[in-house]
Specification:
single chain; alpha+beta; 9 strands; RT_dom
Length: about 325
């Protein structure tokens, strides 16, 4: 309580930050892993089991070759890739000022990816390093690519259980990428966000990963909508969606097709596809496991959260009846806008 009281004098934001750290539940370490009725205790066996589990989990979605829609998407996707291979467009280059601001925005964490370079180290590099980094970034922006080494995710596993021996599906994967890739993503994000906002790609109701658009603001707007309907003696239907493992299971080919249909600049689309393709991961538990191909995308990155919006609320006020069936056509129409 003394910590809470002392932090309260530092301002509201700092107070709630301190309060969150004090009451935040920590993940318990685990030295055993349950597989069926067997409990594994050997580190190598646990590492291999986690490797097999996450390699299976992060496999790309299977295509249904008998589905006409899937085949049409794949055909369009292949045509898009042919066009991108001959495209000469370039992404807008960056400068030392933009990179410096991106470095300032990093949290001083000491956790690191496969290259063992943390945010803490990056924030303490001399100014001359930023100029060299800018030269590299500009070369890659012009070529619509990034180093393949940045696509390797180091997966650390956390225990979801508060007690007992966890199973593989009761662990939470935390994927860590190279810190330099975070800076590069921030540079790309400004270009993608500028295109999306200027072309009104993202609906105004979308919150959570946009500047000055907080989730509490959206919650208040939903609450106000319900109050307005109650005042008019009208019921409200609200449907909430949370797509399971959206960052791991989104069909990348369909995503590229959708962005292409939205008329995203070819240079940005080419860079996004390079960013998505040929990703790899390695599970860390004691020793490193074998590297495997993966469609995993780091969920904590600003770039990935902008592309993979996995929470949806559909608020319907009219037409509304006692049964859901008459509204299906209306929901289909609204959901495909």
């Amino acid at each position: 309580m003394e910590q809470i009281q002392s932090s309260k004098n530092k301002g509201e934001a700092v107070f709630w930050s301190h309060l969150g750290k004090i009451y935040k539940q920590k993940s318990l370490p685990f030295s055993k892993l349950k597989v069926g009725d067997v409990v594994l205790t050997d580190k190598e066996n646990i590492s291999n089991e986690l490797y097999e589990h996450y390699m299976e989990q992060f496999k790309p979605p299977l295509l249904d070759f008998t589905n006409t829609h899937d085949m049409e998407i794949m055909k369009e996707f292949e045509e898009i890739l042919k066009g991108l291979s001959t495209s000469t467009e370039e992404v807008e280059v960056t400068n030392t000022s933009e990179i410096r601001n991106a470095i300032r925005s990093l949290k001083p964490k000491k956790s690191a990816g496969y290259d063992n370079i943390s945010n803490f180290i990056i924030k303490r590099l001399p100014p001359g390093y930023i100029q060299g980094l800018g030269n590299c970034f500009n070369l890659w922006l012009k070529e619509c690519r990034m180093p393949n080494e940045w696509k390797l995710a180091k997966i650390k596993t956390l225990n979801k259980l508060k007690a007992g021996v966890p199973k593989s599906d009761q662990t939470r994967p935390i994927s860590l990428l190279a810190t330099h890739s975070k800076l590069y993503e921030k540079i790309l994000l400004t270009r993608i966000r500028s295109w999306a906002e200027s072309n009104h790609i993202i609906p105004k109701e979308q919150s959570g990963f946009r500047p000055n658009c907080l989730i509490p603001t959206r919650v208040l707007s939903i609450y106000q909508e319900v109050l307005n309907n109650m005042a008019a003696n009208s019921p409200t239907l609200s449907i909430y969606f949370d797509y399971q493992k959206a960052y791991d299971k989104v069909w990348h080919a369909a995503l590229i097709v959708k962005l292409s249909r939205a008329n995203i600049p070819s240079a940005l689309l080419k860079t996004i596809w390079f960013w998505l393709s040929m990703r790899e991961a390695v599970v860390v538990y004691g020793e490193l496991s074998t590297i495997f191909h993966s469609d995993i995308v780091r969920q904590t990155g600003a770039f990935s959260t902008h592309i993979f919006a996995d929470d949806l609320n559909v608020l319907i006020s009219a037409p509304l009846g006692k049964k859901l069936e008459p509204m299906l056509q209306f929901l289909e129409l609204e959901g495909t806008k």
